[in-house]
Amino acid sequence: MEGRQCYDLLVIGGGSGGLACAKEAAQLGKKVAVVDYVEPSPRGTRWGLGGTCVNVGCIPKKLMHQAALLGGMIHDASHYGWKVAQPPHDWGKMAEAVQNHVKSLNWGHRVQLQDRKVKYFNFKASFVNPHMVCGVSKGGEETLLSADHIVIATGGRPRYPTHIEGALEYGITSDDIFWLKESPGKTLVVGASYVALECAGFLTGLGLDTTVMIRSVPLRAFDQQMASLVTEHMAVHGTRILRGCTPLRVERLSDGRLQVIWVDLASDKKDTGTFDTVLWAVGTVSVFILPCFQPVGLSVLSPVTRPPSGPGL
Length: 313
Fold this sequence. Notes:
Cofactor: FAD
Strand content: 25-35%
Number of strands: 15
Oligomer: single chain
GO molecular function: flavin adenine dinucleotide binding; glutathione-disulfide reductase (NADPH) activity
CATH topology of the largest domain: FAD/NAD(P)-binding domain
Number of domains: 2
GO biological process, one term: cellular response to oxidative stress
CATH superfamily of the largest domain: FAD/NAD(P)-binding domain
Family: Belongs to the class-I pyridine nucleotide-disulfide oxidoreductase family.
Distance between the termini: 37 Å
Organism: Neophocaena asiaeorientalis asiaeorientalis
């Protein structure tokens, strides 16, 4: 156990909100520390400092959309007199470039914290008392941190529909799609949030066979006239839309592909399809650190989940 370190402000969570809070407080002359740790996804995906937007959200999504748009421009170029053949897309090359850019942003955030004299700790944290946390490193070493004020900014993670057989064993989420080193191939995206539609959009744009399965309405919290225009546009450009359907189970076939059995909720008719990848985009769980006030040696990270609210990641 390392000696206790004291701060004016301790921020648990190194995403957009946590980092902004820490840097602003440091600019006001406060002694500040940030604790951040990424629990690997069920597929083993992990990333660095910066939170969802930097690592598995806005930034890699926009870069992959740009890749898809460039493919569309090459396709359209012939209509403007350019004699350009449509080359096949290299997912591995794109993924490497996207991931290297994200890693540069991770490093940039660490440098910014250092420049503002904010101490960064990469470990799990749990409360010992209202003004003290215990951090546990990957190697099991424990460090006590105390602060006058503690901000919890741990964000959320994609939710797996664990009531569906095979969902957790064989599916991925937005935590994984941007870190795949190989093409996901023929993909089923389950969900109708903007995360689901954005992922399906760039996958289609990159030339992949992509299906979106929608249980009820797309973009529920958005204007439905605009939501209809979005899905109509996607369908015209090659995305298959399955409406009023919900998956029942996912099975792995002998060739390694995934067979999905689903039901049409209107007719109660079952159907099947074979895919290389199943991507779940069905809401989030929020993770909090509970003030458990346990003895330090028994301290643990305590997650609390809540039903997804809204269409976000």
